[in-house]
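Structure in, sequence out. Go:
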């Protein structure tokens, strides 16, 4: 048989095998097949005992891909399960730390040595009463006072002495650090995103998802902790927001959110908020909003030291002679931060006249900023306000505003720290004793005569 004939036979046998396979799949009985097909079937059955037919490259690729995908899924499941367990454990641990912190209280540190600290027991006791609300209290607090009156120190003392259930949050000047300030107050890291969470953030688009800042997450955690605390102690916890004046100029929206949350929490008796500020613009803004309906009125105000307290500080704590102490008090009054500064300078050997000029120069810059000096925008109206304040010590807020052409002008001058707004009595006065001292030393600028001056002792 020629090679060509052999090739034809082989090809015919291959075709018959394929035909038999098609018959078998379609259910055609073997008896109906042709003799040649039956013969090939026998040889086909016989060849099945030999090595299997060759698998195509596509089949091999599919098997490899399936194996790889299975391995990847297994690895993902391993890491995801471990990551979820870690995240869950971390969440529970943070919750434990938060509840423990609320139980014990923040107890902020006092950075003033006892020999420099001016004791004000009446103010501290009043603050401690605020920090210990009863079960059904339904209002929040605003505590005001000029910069340098000792609000922060006194608030920290009261918070530390009360301890349990008091969370103290010091609002930073840099609002980018606000989340960290909340984190420090509640004793745990606010952002602990799991590895899985980071992957999902990259894969999934969060365009439509609400964004929460770190301080908002902390506030949410505090709401939950307040429920736990009240269930255990049958009274609300307290959150103290110190230095909220940092918010009124940089981000009023945050102040509004905190005030709204304080109002809702007071309604629900969950926690009591205490806002501490040093600028009149804070109470004026808070008073203008509907959330003010749940604020405790009148507002508590922390003022300067009395003359007796000031003299005791200068003579007993700073060891300054009485005659010199009187001069220093007459210059700056009972504003503790200014009193400490002039006492430091005096004890450093600086002559009183030099100290006085330094104080006057500092005050003159405030008058310049307020445009109250000669040939400045508010000089004429300023003279009228100053004369009336020298006569009566305080002016009603409305009376003060009526000196100006509009509310915006009055507010602008009020924010320059020449005059001070007192929300407790809704009045306006000189911002400090040093302001009045400057006016006495420069009476001609404001057409003030000696008969207009009264000896005013700071309460």
């Amino acid at each position: 048989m020629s090679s060509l004939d052999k090739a034809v036979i082989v090809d015919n046998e291959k075709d018959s095998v394929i035909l038999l396979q098609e018959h078998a799949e379609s259910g055609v009985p073997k008896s109906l097949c042709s003799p040649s097909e039956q013969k090939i079937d026998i040889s086909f059955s016989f060849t099945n005992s030999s090595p299997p037919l060759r698998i195509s490259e596509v089949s091999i690729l599919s098997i490899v891909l399936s194996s790889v995908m299975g391995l990847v899924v297994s690895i993902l499941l391993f890491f995801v399960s471990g990551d979820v367990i870690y995240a869950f454990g971390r969440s529970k641990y943070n919750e434990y730390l938060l509840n423990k912190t609320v139980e014990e209280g923040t107890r902020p540190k006092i950075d003033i040595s006892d020999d420099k600290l001016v004791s004000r027991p009446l103010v501290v006791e009043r603050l401690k009463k605020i920090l210990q609300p009863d079960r059904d209290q339904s209002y929040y607090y605003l505590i005001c006072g000029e910069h340098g009156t000792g609000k922060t120190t006194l608030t920290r003392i009261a918070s530390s002495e009360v301890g349990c259930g008091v969370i103290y949050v010091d609002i930073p000047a840099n609002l980018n650090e606000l989340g960290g300030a909340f984190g420090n107050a509640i004793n745990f890291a606010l952002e602990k995103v799991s590895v899985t969470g980071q992957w999902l953030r990259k894969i999934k688009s969060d365009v439509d998802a609400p964004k929460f800042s770190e301080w908002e997450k902390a506030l949410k955690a505090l709401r939950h902790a307040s429920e736990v605390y009240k269930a255990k102690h049958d009274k609300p916890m307290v959150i103290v927001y110190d230095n909220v004046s940092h918010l009124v100029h940089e981000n009023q929206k945050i102040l509004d959110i905190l005030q709204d949350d304080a109002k809702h929490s007071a309604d629900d008796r969950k926690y009591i908020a205490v806002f501490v500020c040093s600028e009149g613009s804070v109470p004026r803004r808070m008073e203008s909003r509907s959330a003010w309906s749940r604020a405790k009125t009148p507002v508590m105000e922390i003022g300067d030291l009395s003359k007796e307290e000031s003299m005791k500080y200068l003579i007993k704590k700073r060891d300054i002679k009485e005659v010199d102490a009187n001069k220093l008090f007459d210059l700056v009054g009972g504003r503790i931060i200014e009193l400490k500064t002039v006492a430091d300078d005096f004890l450093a050997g600086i002559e009183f006249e030099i100290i006085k000029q330094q104080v006057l120069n500092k005050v003159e810059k405030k008058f310049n900023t307020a445009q109250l000096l000669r040939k400045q925008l508010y000089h004429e109206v300023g003279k009228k306000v100053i004369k009336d304040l020298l006569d009566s010590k305080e002016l009603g807020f409305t009376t003060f505003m009526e000196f100006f052409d509009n509310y915006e002008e009055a507010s602008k001058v009020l924010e320059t720290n020449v005059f001070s707004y007192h929300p407790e009595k809704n009045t306006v006065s000189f911002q400090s004793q040093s302001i009045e001292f400057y006016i006495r030393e420069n009476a001609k600028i404001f057409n003030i005569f000696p008969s207009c001056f009264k000896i005013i002792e700071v309460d």
